[in-house]
User: Which sequence fits this backbone?
């Protein structure tokens, strides 16, 4: 076969990750990257992921593209075999009777009939491999379509988990806001009672009322965001936006996975990430198509044949004596095309170079995504541990400030400051808990989790 043979690209990747890896605690052996969401141990999340894989519309489109690529390969393979056409015709014609011996002025002419039926066959002998290179390119295109579907799976499963975690985060933040609102309302009632008793000024009452109103104003926007997350999940499952509202409205905690992740080594991305595998398939297809156009520089050899019956009389049309046949090879060779074929080869070589550069860029992006996910996950866990300590301290500060205020040993501003700090740290802790889980999802996505060999 003419044209270059495909060789996998030589990828240079680091021996180890630059960022912190969760290898201090070995990952449980039952963690399956193909179904990584099960590590969160959340039945609702698992159910949503399974339904999304069955009914997501983007995934259905990707599956249709795989079938399209498979059919295109079948078209390419058919070029190796012969073609046979059945033909049939009945023709009646009249020719003028010039110089035929008729009297002067005779216009009858000659009327004749032709009845024809048979088969025409042709077979191009793929001596220089143009057809086989086309099949090779179609195989690579099919593999690329398969990898695109897998890439959609990776993105889909990560998007479902991210939206679900955000939903639970909004619900937790709503609960935190309501709890703090109840505490602040209690403080406001206490302040009014002390004002009516003449123990405090109206300034304390105004400050308490303002804090209650401020906290209350946050809840509607959080409720709207939670409902929007439900709508987003429904669309990912191929449902109407409101279909999941009854199922997801009851609040639940933010799902948390184990800190251990089977990150492996950077070279594992080459076999695990569908986008890298697709980029490699694109290089293969571009390389094979160089051979397809290179074959146009050489002659084409075809074996043709035909057989059938032909008669001018309908009654004897199908008679064995009226048979005809022909058989023989033919060759065509385009000896001059003003450089068109050479230019086509250069074009395909440039496309191959582009595919190779795209592969290198895809690999670098994959390494960056994984490094980003590793450092974000490690540092966010540290942040969350500090926030847990801060929340505990702020809760103690709120309790002490209320006691001191009741006993008249401090002013109401101390109570307000303690309550604001508690609300802020609890809100920040909820956001950090969400970030820990979403960073874990991002890490599994960066590692190419979400698909398995079929």
Assistant:
């Amino acid at each position: 076969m003419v044209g270059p043979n495909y060789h996998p690209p030589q990828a240079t990747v680091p021996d180890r990750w630059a960022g912190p890896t969760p290898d201090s605690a070995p990952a449980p052996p039952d963690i399956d990257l193909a179904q990584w969401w099960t590590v969160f141990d959340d039945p609702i999340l698992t159910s949503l992921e399974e339904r999304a894989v069955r009914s997501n519309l983007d995934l259905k489109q990707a599956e249709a593209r795989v079938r399209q690529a498979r059919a295109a390969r079948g078209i390419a393979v058919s070029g190796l075999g012969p073609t046979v056409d059945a033909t049939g015709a009945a023709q009646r014609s009249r020719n003028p009777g010039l110089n035929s011996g008729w009297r002067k002025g005779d216009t009858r002419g000659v009327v004749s009939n032709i009845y024809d039926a048979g088969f025409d066959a042709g077979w191009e002998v793929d001596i220089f491999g143009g057809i086989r290179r086309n099949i090779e390119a179609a195989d690579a295109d099919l593999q690329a379509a398969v990898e695109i579907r897998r890439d959609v799976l990776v993105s889909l499963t990560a998007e479902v988990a991210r939206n679900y975690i955000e939903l639970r985060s909004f619900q937790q933040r709503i609960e935190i806001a309501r709890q703090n609102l109840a505490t602040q309302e209690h403080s406001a009632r206490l302040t009014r009672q002390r004002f009516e008793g003449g123990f405090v000024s109206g300034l304390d009452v105004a400050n308490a009322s303002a804090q209650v109103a401020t906290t209350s104003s946050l809840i509607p926007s959080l409720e709207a965001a939670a409902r929007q997350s439900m709508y987003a999940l429904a669309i990912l499952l191929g449902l109407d936006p409101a279909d999941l509202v009854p199922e997801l409205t009851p609040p639940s905690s933010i799902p948390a996975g184990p800190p251990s992740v089977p990150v492996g080594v950077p070279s594992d991305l080459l076999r695990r990430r569908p986008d890298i595998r697709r980029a490699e398939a694109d290089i293969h297809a571009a390389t094979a198509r160089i051979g397809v156009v290179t074959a146009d520089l050489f002659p084409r050899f075809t074996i043709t044949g035909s057989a059938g019956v032909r008669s001018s009389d309908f009654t004897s049309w199908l008679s064995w004596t009226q048979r005809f046949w022909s058989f023989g090879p033919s060759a065509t060779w385009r000896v001059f095309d003003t450089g068109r074929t050479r230019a086509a080869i250069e074009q395909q070589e440039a496309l191959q170079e582009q595919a190779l550069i795209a592969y290198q860029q895809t690999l670098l992006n994959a390494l960056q995504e994984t490094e980003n996910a590793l450092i974000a996950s490690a540092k966010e866990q540290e942040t969350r541990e500090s926030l847990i300590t801060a929340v505990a301290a702020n809760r103690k500060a709120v309790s002490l400030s209320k006691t001191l205020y009741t006993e008249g040993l401090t002013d109401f501003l101390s109570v307000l400051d303690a309550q604001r700090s508690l609300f802020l740290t609890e809100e920040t802790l909820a956001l950090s808990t969400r970030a820990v889980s979403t960073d874990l999802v991002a890490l599994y996505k960066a590692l190419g989790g979400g698909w398995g060999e079929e």
In short: DSSP finds nine helices and four strands in the chain.
